[in-house]
Amino acid sequence: MYNFKETEKKWQTYWEENETFKTDVWDFSKPKFYALDMFPYPSGVGLHAGHPEGYTATDIVTRMKKMQGYNVLHPMGWDAFGLPAEQYAINTGNHPEQFTLDNIKTFKGQLKSLGFAYDWSREISTTNPTYYKWTQWIFKQLYLDGYAKYIDMPVNWCEELGTVLSNDEVIDGKSERGGYPVVRKNMKQWVMDIPAYAEKLLNNLDDLDWPESTKEIQRNWIGKSVGALVDFKVANTHHTFTVFTTRCDTLFGATYCVLSPEHKIVNEITTEEQKEAIEEYQRICATKSELERTELSKDKTGVFTGAYAINPVNNKEIPIWISDYVLATYGTGAIMAVPAHDDRDYEFAKKFNIPIIQVLEEETGETKENESQKNSIVAIVHDQETDQYLTINWHQLGGRLFIGGTIKEGETPLECAFREVAEETGYTDIEQLKETFKIRHHYYAHNKDKYFQIECTGFLFELKSHNKQTQNLDEDEAFDVEWVSKDIVLEEIKDALHLKTFEYTENGGAMTGDGIHINSEFLNGLYKEEAIQKMIAWLEEHHVGKKQINYRLRDWIFARQRYWGEPVPIVHMEDETDRVLEDEELPLILPKMDDYKGRNGKAPLENAEEWKHVEIDGIEGIRETSTMPGSAGSSWYFLRYIDPNNEDAIADPELLKHWLPVDLYVGGPEHAVGHLLYSRFWNEYLYDKGIVPVKEPFQKLVHQGMILGANGIKMGKRYPEYVVNPSDVVESHGADALRLYEMFMGPLQADKPWSQTGLDGSKKFLDRVYRIFEEGKMVEETTPELEKIYHQTVKKVTNDYETLNFNTAISQMMIFINAVYKEDKISREYAEGFIQLLNPVCPHMTEEIWHTYLGHDETIAVSTWPTYEESKTVEDTYEMIVQVNGKVRGKIEVSTSTTKEEMETLAKDIPNVKIHLEDKEIIKVITVPKKLVNIVVK
RNA sequence: GCUUGCGUGGCGGAAUUGGUAGACGCACAGCACUCAAAAUGCUGCGGUUUAUGACCAUGAGGGUUCGAUUCCCUCCGCAAGCACCA
């Protein structure tokens, strides 16, 4: 019987004592492979079930690559600074430093008990001064190059946590940690100018082997939009303001402008009469939290400033409003509003009765030459009592339509609509509900043999009563007037114009799609894209605007009013200058403090009186008391692993050149816009400085899925009875069984529920493997019966490990073991190969068998990975499938050398196939070599 | 609302340059071993049926094809991300 407890301990000690997985980074003779795990926060609760999943995945690849002759770097460390660790320490009444050290000890013990092939000599912790010296050094470079800035700006302030937070740490207006409310507040802050790298961060994404969803999240987060700046003069003043728009082609349709309540010129342009209302509105906005702003977003609010802006394109005066639907932090904090073609502006204009000017027409039908032009209407009449629509059934002549007609000279579209409804259907008592934007429609009129282009206005009416006049028809008009339901309308009305009109009346809102410009002077007749180009050219020519690219990505707020982080190596001097520390002064050590909690919104380091006050060149100064965010240290740790003890540089340039980029990076998807974006930014910056040799640090990224509780719900405080502790499983089933089970559960990337019986099953498989040796089923001579399946197994397992499809690799190994039991014996050769294949997943038991039953002296970790012969993986016969009309009617075992003709003959000879061919005419026979024959009959 | 994924037995899942749907495992049932149980080994296991066969079945409905889990369209459901970004 296999004793996993003793055995697992034994080999863990052996690997440690023999430094089996120590990497000689200077050995450039072998190809390199850098496998990286996202290093954990050493929280107080220890490892959770999800940790072993990702870590086993990289471990499998690491062990296989090592056996395949690669020099593999597989390190581990601790992301121990930051809010989570500090908050946890406060909650449990500990000091962050001791608490962190204790947790690291626990984590390390747990990881070792899982048998991971880490090179522990490269262990790093972001909290170690020898490490954060370089975090501060990178900050210094960024500061000197102007990317780290100390500026006054609106930030996310969390009162409960007593600190500012970066945008990715705020979710739905609440803090990611703890879910406390977050408000906007102006503060002098350290920020990183990550927007300066927006374009590079966006472009480089294309070439990365990353999950598409994560790339998309980063693209959205960066949020590039191409548009234009347009300058507006404020009428009768010397003031101007600039708006950002992606739709400068709609400038002729601008009927008002909106400034964000915080915009600089608001107070200067507001008229006396409006002053009170404006100030009141500004006051309300300022006190609203992020959460309140989003919650109240359903209804538009705003106040007129009393001032007017001059539209540069036609010199029309349009009112200037303020509203919180315009954000101070995006674009220029001001917009031109085009209600006809923007949903938000439309909603606002409707609420405040501001004019709406259509400048684009949607098009239906196809443009033809020599079209005659007409103006027309489509009238849709609805009867509330029956919820039916009034239609005209032209039968063969044109199918079902609403009421349509041409506008006569001197008639308004609305008058025309009333007239047409009365003439064609007799109904006179109708009330107008809606008028749609005009649609441009192209069609061919059979009776006149002419092409028409019409400009059509749609109307929706409500039937007030069934009062009727006599219909007034031309003699050639033959149709029936019918009331039909919405379903019939959608089913039977085929005409594009009528359908589109119906859609407009149903949905309402602005017309935001593409179309043809009208009411726009030099843009008339152009589609959106051409019009944008032409307008930009016009704006630039007249010096009232220019092309502009804008990003949603904001400055990375880089300071926390907390204790447990890297001190910022800056001194604010008495003479109002800032001094960055000399390299020799780094690391700036975090002072030990008994009371590390901030008071009254002040950073804890404010209380470190002795540490805080410095004198440089005879001038007094005060150190920066904010610390860096948790994501600072984790933004470059993958560089430090390569050369963790280097005292002169973040790492030796030659080593960086050899080992970068990371070949495989595995971690959770929750870091998509935090860590994964910040790391890319720092790496790209260091690349530009010539310190790092690659543009992108992580070539291949994979997110492991979440291990859910057996109830299918995320493990956590909510359902403590479903939480699985990996250490308990190591105790009860062994590390090998846990590793095997987590890899067999399903695809690495998928969320998967835990199953206790599934875990038992994995343990049983290991026992089943062990029993082969225990019961002496291994023989020295070869077992030809297993040859094919063995070679197939080596091939599949090797490929599947490479592509991280561990579940199917394990399934193939189970198939192999089932075959061994069927034969009841296995040759030494195949047994050794199989144990090597299983080793990366279950390193302890396989190591034990390798020594005890297979008689090796050296660790299996340095053995050579088994190979397969392609010729031995293929069968010489196969089961040919015979289909009749695509349905399987027979199967027959044939040789792989069977020709197409022979296949057909054999197929037609199968009794059950014959039955299905009887009295049928064979039309076609499709033969796929080594697969099937499909006989098509009639 | 927008973006990106996903939807297959009782359960986890397998199969995609379009070619036997349900590999492998769990659960379940039967047999062997045993005084018995556990453990172990072997066998069966999508549904219906008149059962060596036929029909139905990969969220629903349509399409392309000799043939669709796989490709296309519409709809439904679930998950994640974004959410007044001009």
In short:
This protein is an alpha+beta fold and 938 residues long. The chain has 30 helices and 41 strands. Helices cover 34% and strands 22% of the residues.
Describe the structure.
By secondary structure, the chain is of the alpha+beta class. The protein has 30 helices and 41 strands. Strands 16, 17, 18, 19, 20, 21, 22, 23, 24 and 25 form a 10-stranded mixed β-sheet that branches. Strands 10, 11, 12, 13, 14, 15 and 26 form a 7-stranded mixed β-sheet that branches. A 4-stranded parallel β-sheet has the order 2-1-32-33, covered by helices on one side. α22 (735-744) packs across α23, α23 (756-774) crosses α25 (806-823) and α24 packs parallel to α26. The longest helix is centred in the last third of the chain and has 19 residues, at 756-774. The model has no long low-confidence stretch (mean pLDDT 90). The protein binds one RNA strand of 86 nucleotides through α7, β11, β15, α11 and β35.
